[in-house]
Amino acid sequence: MHVLDPCNPGAVDEIVHLGDYWNEAGLRSNKDRVLQLNREVGQLFARVYKYLAQAKLLSEEIESYYADTGAVPLSALNRLKGELAGSIFRGRSRDSAPLSRHLFASAITPDGCVNHFSTVFDGVAGRFFLRGGSKLARASIVEKIYREALDRGFFVEAFHCGLIPDYLEHLIIPELDVALITANEYHDCGARPDDTVLDLDSLSDRAALEPWAEDLAEAQTRFTAALVRAIELLRRAKEAHDAMESYYVPNMDFTRIDCLREQILARILAYAQEVREATVAAL
Predict the structure, then answer these.
(1) pLDDT averaged over the chain?
(2) How far apart are CA 226 and CA 237, in angstroms?
(3) Residue range 157-186: average pLDDT?
């Protein structure tokens, strides 16, 4: 189920009830199978969330080895942030209110880790790639550039991590035609010859990590296993959901639904015209 209750029903919000367009007798004849599949989908998703939570904890464990050992020197990290900011902004700013839009460019799906980087980043002229090193270090760099872009009055498109949404992974600053992209084994769009690639492994003190090498490798192995298991369960959940949908598709009146869609679209366009006219009249 995907439920979103209206905040102001009737006064502002409207409810479109698609139950008016299904064949209830046809659905009831398959009630037991639909209920079984619905339970199966719920059980599978509950397990998916557990494995993703496990993967998040293991990601945090991996980060702890970098943080606890000081394997990424703050002085070097801050110097890199300053140099990157200088390369991106070059003293430029705008006298406008800071705005941002927050999105995802990649996701954990039944088909694995999927991204749409080509759609998002191919048209950007100036691209800076972050590779290697600590996930938290990379996220702190992206956060630094994000904050500075807002402070300078630029509009920013900010893309979050699908596993840990608190982390920023990518940015686009359209007015500068610049993108900052985190590339790793789970999502990468491939650098062009004119892109700038920043390898954070060069900042890491491998000697500091050496005493914890086996623990770090074990955490990384378990992280991958948890992610793979979550994806497998997601695939099974999708199969069960598709099987459930197979009982609904032949029992829906799509001709009438198409007519309803056209009516709703016409009303939306009429509302938009009213707003435009009211805006012009207020000028």
Answers:
(1) 93
(2) 16
(3) 95
